[in-house]
Amino acid sequence: MSGTSSSSSRPQPTSAEELLEKVKRELERYEHPLFDFDARSASGGIEVTIRFTPAGVDVHTYYFLLQAREIEHPQFPWSFQRQLYDCLHDYVIEMFVRNPQRRDA
What we know:
- By secondary structure, this protein is of the alpha+beta class.
- 34% of the residues lie in helices and 20% in strands.
- The longest helix is centred in the C-terminal third of the chain and has 19 residues, at 76-94.
């Protein structure tokens, strides 16, 4: 047996600032003519915002929360892309003013 304890082999928790910076670095890899992306610390993790940018159209801002375990995962760049694309899809669908499924249409 070695003299090291099992607690020393556990990775140290990542600080909220480090998590935020990691998400912001990942967001810098994405650019879109219709959407702006940002991130900020939030209760429970890092909140990502997707904002529709064209002027003159009043559309809500879309938010989703990333938990620390998601950001710390080695596959984060790939899982983040999938989540971002899924959220963009949901956001665009939410922008419909009228569609057959809406009860008020």
